[in-house]
Amino acid sequence: MTAELSGWTHVYSGKVRDLYVPSATMTDDDTWTGDPLATSPEVLVVASDRVSAFDHVLEPGIPGKGELLTTLSLWWFDQLQVPNHLIADHGLDGASRIPAAVAGRSMLVRTLDMYPVECVVRGYLTGSGWKEYQASQTVCGIPLPAGLQNGDRLPEPIYTPAWKAPLGEHDENISYERTVELVGADVAAELRALSLQIFTDASAIAEAHGLILADTKFEFGADRETGVTRLGDEVLTSDSSRYWDAAAYAVGSTPEARMASFDKQIVRDWLAANWDQQGTPPELPAEIVEQTAARYRELLGRLTAL
Ligand code: ATP
Ligand code: MG
Fold first, then answer.
1. In terms of residue numbers, what domain contains 49?
2. Where is the SAICAR synthetase/ADE2 N-terminal domain positioned along the sequence (predicted)?
């Protein structure tokens, strides 16, 4: 259920987040057929407890997830030295413009003209990358050395962009050359450089907290006033990233033991074992919901502990 927020107009719901703009900035031109974010310079991004896997929203949600993801994103934005989309109002004090009903799981951000590229960086071989590697010794077309195992560290992080499909369609892996066609040579190069730099910086921070950042996805957009590229969306959360326990990785003798994850891999694994990806996905059992919530909480605790 999307909350009714006085003074704000709901304009869009993704799989996980609901977007609102100040009702006062809505004009007659903001019809539902146009870009709902066309005229508002700011947008309220409210994270729900919804969980998605294989591009399906599952039932039930993960209690507290929206708040955990928001706290994690805010923490990471603060750590990173790149321009981001936050407007300095996190809804955590009384003077905030963020409605109390969604405080803690909302970010007030500048509306960016989002680039239609999901900027994926992989430091380790797993998931769809591992599948492709077994078939062709490549990941998203990038050739890799022979003999790698599931969960192995790559010689260096690789940038494997995807095309951000419209709602309801699947994102599609694309070549770097295709990103040049989509956003131009300069922006494509900037997105790749920023993504690899943020991944390297974030990996070092994660490592200092006993965590491996295996892979992640960033979304960037252009500042509407200055054209500057800003980091948008959520960042380095357990929805957009794979995190593993560094200590378990060091001693694990099986892929499962090495990749003790702090992300929604629990949900993906359960779903893969209990659903043939036809029709409506089954309901998540209570213990999977609780295990996932516990892992998300532990990730936040580890990262933000002094
Ligand atoms: P989809 O957009 O396909 O629904 P999704 O399921 O990932 O993808 P959510 O993450 O739930 O969607 O919703 C967040 C939406 O807000 C995304 O479409 C994202 O690109 C967009 N977004 C994030 N930050 C900004 C911003 N600063 N300005 C404009 N749009 C933004
Ligand atoms: Mg998203």
1. 8-110
2. 11-276
The answer to whether residue 299 sits within a structural domain is no
What pTM did the predictor assign? 0.94
Q: Please tell me the distance between residue 16's alpha carbon and the centre of ligand 2 in angstroms.
A: 7
Yes or no: say if 200 and 81 are a contact pair by the CB < 8 Å rule.
no
Q: Does 116 share its domain with 255?
A: yes
In a domain, 277, yes or no: no
106/97 Cα distance (integer angstroms): 11
Q: Whose CA is nearest to atom 18 of ligand 1?
A: 14
Note the ipTM here.
Answer: 0.95
Pairwise CA distance, residues 228 & 230, whole Å: 6
Residues 77-128: pLDDT tens digits? 999 999 999 997 666 665 688 999 999 999 999 999 999 999 999 999 999 9
- Domain containing residue 231: CATH number: 3.30.470.20
Domain assignment present for residue 62? The answer is: yes
Question: 225 lies in a domain?
Answer: yes
Contact residues of ligand 1, CB 6 A cut-off:
14-17, 19, 37, 43, 45, 85, 109-112, 114, 167, 219, 221, 232-233
What is the separation of C-alpha 242 from the centre of its chain, rounded to a whole number of angstroms?
10
